Amino acid sequence: MNFYRLLGVLPNSKPEEIKRAFYHKAKKFHPDVNPNSSTLFKYITQAYQTLIDSNKRKEYEAFLSKKGLLETFSEKFVEILGFTDKPKRGTDINLQIKLSLKEAIEGVEKEVLYQRRVICKRCDGCGFDEESVVVECDGCKDGRMETKFGRFVCPVCLGRGFLIKNPCRDCKGSGHTKVTQSLYLQINQGVEDGSTKVFKHLGNAGLNGGEYGDLKVRFSVDFGVFEKVGDDILLRLKLPNSPDHYRYLNIRVPTGEKVSIEMPQEKPPMKIRLKGYGYNKQDGTRGDLILLVL
Ligand SMILES: [Zn+2]
Ligand SMILES: [Zn+2]
């Protein structure tokens, strides 16, 4: 059985963390408190006594990892079927955030809501709670099956060595629950279209004490009628009449304000440059807005 998962600690936990996890569990599962859970308490105590003693812990880790070559191949196969008690990192979550051009240029704070799987709070990921009743697994010894091909994680109890008759109510024994996570994103001025920001450990929970995956946020900027050319922004304008029909040209700049400019009396195509109305530059200033009058 996976003692780490049983106590709800990570495989690299320090003795203090193991002690704390054991006391936390003992408060719920001690037979004086909960007469139904004496078998579970026996397992939890066994896990604690093994992990707190450095020699026993080493022996236990050797037991978990000991295998021959054939066994390694076969175990990979069994793992693909989902029968494993090894720590496995959680999956990453990819999110796409759409920004208006104004938001991208000026920077913005946004609240993002997304679904993720987290370690169950009720059972700390071990899959059983105070009301659970367990029975020993007949098919294996300490969660391992001996076969002529080697020793494998028992597919019936998934390496626990016991079966839970009524698993944790909140996670149904999986050790994970789905939650809606809220995240405040401070998006900097001049964020690049298509760029990605990684938030460590904000993805899905791992299996058997494996670490959390990451959250990857990809920004996409809606340029609308504008085009980004380096630090400048280009706007193509097709005038219905020749330029001498207009004295002023009223346009909406990328950040949304209206700007009125004097119409140069030239023949199209012509370029009009509006300084500082373009995209953000590295030095904190802004490029130009280029009107291409056709
Ligand atoms: Zn079993
Ligand atoms: Zn649970």
Structure, described:
- The protein has 2 domains: 3-222, Sandwich (HSP40/DNAj peptide-binding domain); 226-293, HSP40/DNAj peptide-binding domain, CATH 2.60.260.
- 22% of the residues lie in helices and 30% in strands.
- It contains 6 helices and 15 strands.
- The longest helix has 15 residues, at 15-29.
- The radius of gyration is 31 Å and the shape is elongated.
- The chain starts with a helix and ends with a strand.
- The model has no long low-confidence stretch (mean pLDDT 88).
- Bound molecules: zinc ion (2 copies).
Task: Give the key terms.
294 residues, alpha+beta, HSP40/DNAj peptide-binding domain, 2 domains, four-stranded mixed beta sheet, three-stranded mixed beta sheet, 22% helix, binds zinc ion
